[in-house]
Write a structure and sequence with these properties.
The chain has 15 helices and no strands. The protein has 459 residues and is mostly helical. The protein has two domains: 23-229, no CATH class; 238-459, no CATH class. Helix 11 runs antiparallel to helix 13 (352-377). The radius of gyration is 23 Å and the shape is globular.
């Protein structure tokens, strides 16, 4: 009997067990539900842009787009805050600490609300300068953006808590309702004559709705969903680990957003506009797969805390991401002219080389984020050093190599590739070590404080 024939009987049960775990209904159901609802959100968001482009005069639409871009830039740190909220609430939820979870949410909402209000006041004080810098018609849209900033940071905490408690259908429905309210409020406010200020103000109205509705949903979840802890009680991440989580998330957010700023600094308006259009199309690849990474984080927390293997969830998430990214890349690269015609009405022409580079960067960033989410989920937070260095090196590379748009985009793709390779190697080692330790029924030491001792594997 050959070695392969002897190994086959031992390998077959392992493959069967892995396959059964890959189709575990909880994770797969949440992935599919959030993906479907996210597509509805994207359709409504596109409808908002489509309707505003037809209701507003060209100068007012350009003003709305500029202010919303500023709002997105200021909101970059909220991506890191969302990851932290998912991690902390996920840890508290899986260990049955409902009272502590709600207390953390209330405290976070209060602190973030105060910080958001301070940002709104600062934006109001600088509204004249912002108006002159971006050549806006008035300060109304800037003031509306300030209110939207304050409320959007509050919404991030609420949505993070829903994700951390694994209520993804509620999260998706809330996001759909928020985007629908934004569309309706935008139409109403523009018809009332508020022009760009009304279009931007619709974002603040929608955020207020989402904050109130989301807080109610989280409160009901805490009351009815954590009576029976799924794992032994442990301490949630302390300040040191919370800082590491924020640094990991901020590094990834910076890696994803800085290239557009460098293009605007180093290139003229026409080149910057062309690159922004290509970046918008390329980022569709990343955003299409983003819900998969979000779902993986709380599920990896649950798997690790209850002594289950984290490998099936990771493999399922990677498979879904590669499938989604594959379809998106195929459509964008096969029909670039049609995609640009639908999105931009013929104002911008696709650049084949830039699209290929951005498609590669978007794919690598999608893989990087899902690997980072798994490591955060099991409390392995040492990646903050490498990701911070990679992002800093990317900034240096963009300063040194910006002779063309393709060259600058290439720096982004290289940085994303290095980050994906680094996290890939470390994740493979981590998963093997965690699964081996859990299979022996003992704690897996993967981090300084956040990696709690998982329970013995359930049969």
């Amino acid at each position: 009997m050959s070695v392969s024939e002897a190994a086959a009987p031992r390998l077959a049960p392992r493959l069967a067990e892995l396959a059964s775990r890959l189709v575990r209904p909880g994770l797969l159901r949440d992935q599919v539900a959030l993906l479907v609802l996210s597509m509805v959100v994207n359709v409504l968001a596109f409808a908002f842009q489509f309707v505003m482009a037809r209701l507003l005069e060209p100068p007012a639409y350009a003003e709305m787009f500029a202010v919303l871009s500023l709002l997105a830039l200021v909101g970059v740190p909220s991506q890191a805050l969302n990851t932290l909220a998912v991690k902390i609430t996920g840890e508290l939820f899986v260990h049955g600490r409902g009272a502590q979870l709600w207390s953390w949410v209330v405290t976070a909402l209060t602190r973030i609300g105060v910080a958001g209000l301070a940002i709104a006041v600062l934006v109001g004080l600088l509204s004249g300068l912002i108006r002159d810098t971006f050549q806006l018609s008035g300060v109304g849209s800037v003031l509306a953006a300030g209110m939207a900033i304050a409320l959007s940071y509050v919404v991030v905490v609420v949505k993070g808590a829903l994700a951390g408690t694994r209520h993804f259908v509620a999260l998706g429905v809330l996001s759909v309702a928020e985007t629908a309210v934004r569309l309706g409020a935008g139409v109403l406010l523009v018809y009332l004559g508020l022009a760009a200020a009304g279009a931007v103000g619709a974002t603040a109205v929608a955020a207020l709705f989402a904050a109130l509705a989301g807080a109610v949903a989280v409160r009901r979840t805490v009351r009815h969903g954590v009576d029976h802890p799924e794992a032994p009680p442990t301490e949630p991440p302390g300040w040191a680990d919370q800082t590491r989580i924020l640094l990991i998330s901020l590094a990834l957010a910076a890696m994803f957003n800085l290239d557009v700023l460098f293009v605007k600094h180093f290139f003229g308006e026409s080149d910057a506009a062309r690159y922004s259009a290509i970046a918008l199309v390329g980022r569709t690849i990343f955003f299409a797969a983003a819900p998969v990474s979000l779902v993986l984080l709380p599920h990896s927390i649950r798997a690790f805390s209850t002594g289950r293997s984290v490998a099936p969830g990771l493999l399922l998430s990677l498979g879904l991401i590669l499938a989604i990214v594959g379809v998106a890349v195929a459509v964008i690269l096969t029909y670039p002219a049609q995609v640009f015609a639908v999105l931009f009405g013929g104002r911008y022409e696709p650049d084949a080389s830039l699209l290929w580079i951005y498609a590669l960067a978007g794919t690598l960033l999608s893989v990087t984020v899902v690997l980072a989410q798994l490591q955060i989920g099991v409390g392995h937070l040492t990646a903050w050093r490498a990701l911070t260095l990679i992002t800093a090196a990317m900034v240096g590379g963009m300063v040194a190599f910006h002779g063309s748009l393709a060259e600058l985009a290439g720096v982004l793709a290289v940085a994303a590739g290095v980050a994906a390779a680094y996290l890939g190697v470390h994740t493979a080692i981590l998963v093997r070590r965690v699964d081996r330790a859990q299979g022996m029924g003992r704690p897996a030491k993967v981090s300084q404080a956040t990696a709690t001792a998982p329970a013995a594997p359930s049969k």
